[in-house]
Design goal:
- The chain is mainly α.
- The chain has four helices and no strands.
- It is elongated.
- It comes from Massilimicrobiota timonensis.
- This is DUF3021 family protein.
């Protein structure tokens, strides 16, 4: 459970950072993006926290398919973005153009977060494998 909590915090931190960065870049186009106040960034934190909790909870469901697992994660992201961000915080008007733009931003944040998490987990796996190799070599010497 400790690892799931750490994973949840990492997902939250990475996705919040990526989202904030993307919105900062898009703020150069004020007609396309909301004004980013401190309340906006607080709402980003709330939504990314909710998404990371959803992803952590749904990851407890045993899913054998890589594609279906990622589809479930995508649903978690869209629930957070459209349900909480759009419904509760009114991030965007409910018009098709804005819904598509927000979906693309959410997808981009999800992909970048997934890539970062992959490299983080690969780094941990490499460290474990090195330790196991060291133990194996020490046992062969004895």
């Amino acid at each position: 459970m400790k690892n799931k909590f750490i994973q949840m915090v990492l997902i939250n931190c990475i996705s919040y950072t990526v989202l904030s960065f993307i919105i900062s870049i898009l703020s150069f186009f004020p007609d396309r993006v909301m004004e980013a106040s401190h309340w906006t960034y607080l709402s980003f934190l709330i939504v990314t926290s909710a998404i990371s909790i959803l992803i952590t909870l749904t990851s407890l469901i045993p899913i054998d398919s890589f594609w279906f697992e990622n589809f479930v994660i995508l649903i978690d992201i869209f629930i957070g973005v459209y349900g909480i961000g759009g419904g509760l915080f009114h991030w965007f008007p409910w018009q098709i153009l804005y819904i598509i733009e927000v979906g693309m931003i959410a997808l981009l944040v999800g992909i970048v977060t997934g890539i970062c998490m992959y490299f983080h987990e690969k780094s941990i796996a490499d460290k474990i494998n090195r330790k196991l190799e060291d133990i194996h070599h020490e046992n062969n010497r004895s």
